[in-house]
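Q: What does the predicted 3D structure of Translation initiation factor eIF2B subunit delta look like?
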Amino acid sequence: MSEQPNGAPAEGQGAPAPAPQTPQQQPSEKNAAPAKDKPAEKSGEKKLTGAELKAKAKADKAARRAQVKDRKEVSKAEAAVSSSPQQLGPAASEVKGKKGKDGAAAGQGGRPLLPKTVPSAVITEQKVQIPECFSHLSMAKRIPMTQADKDVHPSVLALGQQMATFSIDESIARLKATLLAFKRVIQSYTTPPGHTLARHFTPHVLNPQIEYLTACRPMCFSMGNAIRWLKLQVSKIDMDASEEDAKRDLCLAIDTFVAERITVADEVITEAGSKLIRDGEVILTYGRSSIVERTILLAQAAGTKFSVFVVDDPYERQGQQLAKVLSAEGIQVSYCGDFGGLTNHMRRTTKVLVSAEAMFSNGSLYARAGTCDVALAANELHKQVVVLCETINITERVSTDSLTYNEIDPERGQAGAFRLLFDTTPDKYLQLLVTELGTVQPRSAPDLLRKLEEFN
């Protein structure tokens, strides 16, 4: 008997051939369908009509959609928690359990946790829940570079991440960094065939950069003023000018703007502010501001003998660094980490020196949250409050409260722990406004705006 290669006997030699099926044994599709329905008929179930089957299918589809939606919401919530731990509280890894060296999530005693240890309800509770009365305000957030527009320049991508993480925080620092990044965008720009720079650059190149920066963190007022100025410069470009000439003129205009409205302006303000500090005075300042720091150091370099009292923001503690810098320069410094003894400290103070994030046209001061408390305490004890502000920070907008314009602290954006980054101080609590155009009353801000329009 011959064998197949696998050792099985050949067909017809020792292995009986399968019996052919008769037509009655071969079920057809027509006979198969009734066979499936027979158990239902025997069990007494009622056969559904076409309309009922359609309604049932529709209900099943809606249920599946609801399940998919729930899973997406849970995934988004977990991504929001784990993507930006510095902004939205503890990371997802911290909620679920820290990972050991082997990469497994470790619980108490180093034992690995099961994937289902944390229910989905815990993750969904970490979603940002902004109170309804603050829903109109924006908040800084990290935008993944993969989600940015393809036309966003690499330098702008890096700047957006720095702003979202508050590596660049002060308004003037953000303004200067933004203009220099836009300068690189202009230098790398090439006008497409059939277009002109004046018509194509703003909508197709500049606007995507602005939208990305705004998505990372809301623009400050100085950035808004400078961007309007830059768009105006682009619109003024001669249609017949070559691309190289137009790009050179724009870059030169940006350099001039930075030099005049930022560098020289800061020098004039610090010099004027230092002259307001007299011998024997006690200067109180809040938090840390670069322009206030330079003003105090310039006054000390001029030989003025005075002391400084630093009241710090309890949430940021930047005043500690200011106290260290001033102390290292030989200035007598007292430090307070919160507002606990603000009134007692204000009694020993002769003058309050603060900086402005912006100045509204009605003379109100927009500054770091807590500045209004300092100004109120100074007003009760009849202490002079001096504000240092570049004119690029002055806006034509008007505000009398801290809710119209503000920004939510990304680290404290939950309903249970909520904080705004800025507050608004009415002009009646302020005495002097020091700008590069002179020292005026805070309510004279509209006059400064008119001077700027005449200058431009």
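A (community wiki): The structure tokens above were generated from the sequence. The chain has a mean pLDDT of 81. Residues 286 and 311 are 5 Å apart (CA to CA).
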